[in-house]
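Cross-check.
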Amino acid sequence: MERNNRFKIRLTVGNKILLGFLIVMGLFLVNGAIIFFTANRIDQVVGNNSDVIRPSKDAINEFVLQVERYQKFITSWVYLQTNEENKKALIQLVNYEYPALKERITKLKDTWESDSLRTMVDSAFNLFEAVQKNAEAQITSQLNSFESYEDGITKLLAEDVLESQVNPQLKNVLAILGKLASAQVQITARSDENLRNSTRSLRNITLILAGATVVLGLAIAFFLIRSITRPVNFLKNVVVKLGRGELVEEKQSKFSKDEIGEMALAMDNLVAGLKATTLFAENIGKGNYSTEFKPLSDHDVLGNALINMRNNLARVAEEDKKRNWITEGLARFGEILRSNTNDLNKLADEIISNLVKYLKANQGAIYILDDDTEGEEPTISMKACYAWDKKKYLNQKIHKGEGLAGQAWQEGDTIYLTEVPQNYIRITSGLGDANPTCILIVPLKFNEQIYGVVEIASFSVLQDFEIQFVEKIAESIASTISTVKVNARTQRLLEESQEMTEQMRAQEEEMRQNMEELQATQEEMQRNQAETEGTMLAINNTLAIADYDIEGHITKINTTYLNLMGYAASEVVGEHHRIFVTKEEKSSEEYRQFWRDLAAGKSQKGTFKRITRQGTPVTIKSTFTPIRNRQGEISRIMEIAYEI
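Predicted model, tokenized:
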């Protein structure tokens, strides 16, 4: 069955139209062939009639006329001596006209169908030529002068030959020619009848074939209308309804297996696809972005556009969800920060516990910058934690650059790890402990000053918007910590101020006495100041000089030192000396002891390796000298250096 279908010709619309045209063309070809053969037969009849039959008839009639004229001229020759014109005409007929006619009839007789007619015309030629010879011998050659006509015997003999021989023979010739003429008339009549019959047959065949062509053309047109126009009208109705936005399926009982049938199937698929597309669009309008939808094809513009719109709307909805989550979190932590501005420990506990819960993390800790201890490097300590092994980190101080927390503090930037080193931290539960999936460390930075860091550990990977949220609230946390510390410092300073007020009252009298001494020494100081300024100007133009407080923060630095290290004054004033030190040296115990010795009044000198702002190393020779005030206390440290 499949094999038969494989070789079955598919009647497409083009094939149907082509088949109809081929049938009509076949009829036209048959009609043309019949007309051609009939016309060819008519042409043969007409050609035979015009080239053979009628010329033969005319030639026989002319032969009859020549015989009759010959009889007339020969008779005139015998009886009329003076009729020279007829004699000349007789000679012209015998010598010229008759030979030409004989030649023409001889050519025509070869085309005659009847042998008897050819025999008859040959007999007529022979008999007529015999008459001519007899007449020439006994009449024209004898009666050729006036004397011959006067000779009674000669003329009598000529008259006897004319009456007894020539005229009877000419009569026989005319009889033969009469039969030939009658036969030619009959042949001409038959030829005319054949011509009329052929013409009538051609007319009838033409009418019959024209009628058959019209009938078959109408049948083909009806078939094409039924197989093409009606299905096209059906498809037109469906397309019109689609043009009005109606998705109504109109089923036709049967579709032909051609382009129309394919169009109908495609139309059904289109309507079904549009219904599915409409349902998908309705789900998108309801906010259901998880509905499955398959486009009609890879080139389905509407379907692919709807999928892109669904994806864009889903992405926007997800972004709105993230934005709302961030906004809600900021409001929540804003309230926590506003409610805890007096107790730093309570503030830290509230922040870290709520932050870990809000992020759905597992552990967290907050490190706060320790209050400055004179002569010591600043550190940060854990202030509060959530689900953390407190004992392990109790009273542990972290220096800048030490560990991940110290690195985040030093760089002032967020650290996010998804490949956590083994044994860095373990998340413990009742069933055991495991390494976290990610670690987030965010510095608490406000106005470019860092007040601590917050560290979060989680089994689930933190998203970018969650990291951005922690970075945003970190600034608010730093601002609140700054406020709490400022409030505490202000309270402490207020108490100290009250004590100092009492001391100042006692010292006021002493100061008044000292003013007189100061006034006396002021003049001396002014004289020495000019010398000192000149000396310092020379030193500043030659050596690199910097002043530090006893903790190592830069308070003043000259242009030579700035040019050597590649910094501007605004970038280094207020910063610690470690800004010029290598990473290995700044975290070493020797470096911290170096500044403790200076704070204790021990001068230091030597050759040191320093790092410029561009990161290139330079080697300098420096001398660090503690400077004491009048009370003998070390108030600052001066460094004098030059590059080697």
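The first helix runs from residue 2 to 6. The two ends are 102 Å apart (CA to CA). Passed to J.P. for a second look.
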